[in-house]
Amino acid sequence: MRLTLSLSMGSSGGGLEEALILLSLLVVGCAGSKAATKTDPAASLYDRLGQRPAISAVVDDFIANVAADQRINSFFAKTDIPHLKEMLVEQICQVSGGPCTYSGKDMRTVHTGMKVQDAHFDAMVEDLVKTLDKFKIGEREKKELLGALGGMKGDIVGL
User: Fold this and answer.
1) What is the pLDDT of residues 12-53, one digit of tens each?
2) CA neighbours closer than 13 Å in the CB half-sphere of residue 66
């Protein structure tokens, strides 16, 4: 399953899409709660993360981390945050095997021309890990989520 997020951070007023792209980089794999990691290990990642309510809580915290991060928060200055949150939840839900369908643009299209560098991508990952740790996401779940995100790096960085 391939995750595609559309963020158009540019002068075209597409700050939301740009923000979604960057956030989805890190969020593709970040949603959970203490209870989520205590479920059946054979369950889907979506179920192990705690389903949509837990994913929403993780996304809220992650976005707060990004907003406070001077290395990357300028990418989201003109972003419609409520819409961004919904797109991230939708994306994580789909990527983790949940019932959602992500409706955004593909990552390459959204990131082309944004000049996202390795340092920006790494900063997003750090912010996501901070959130995952705060929510005590299990190592297995964290690894699966971060693996999904790492696979998108080539469609985000250096375009």
Assistant:
1) 344 444 444 444 444 443 333 333 445 577 899 999 999 999
2) 31
| CA gap 61, 34 in Å, rounded | 15
- Asked if the structure places residue 147 within a domain, the reply is yes
Ramachandran class of 97: left when φ > 0, alpha when ψ lies in -120 to 50, beta otherwise? left
Q: Decide: residue 145, CB within 10 A, 0-12 exposed, 13-18 middle, 19+ buried.
A: buried
How many structural domains does the chain have?
1
Structural domain range at position 139: 15-155
Rounded Cα distance, 84 and 76, in Å: 10
CA pair distance 82, 91, nearest whole angstrom: 14
pLDDT in tens, 70-99: 999 998 888 889 988 998 999 899 989 999
Q: 133: exposed, middle or buried (C-beta count within 10 Å: 0-12, 13-18, 19+)? A: exposed
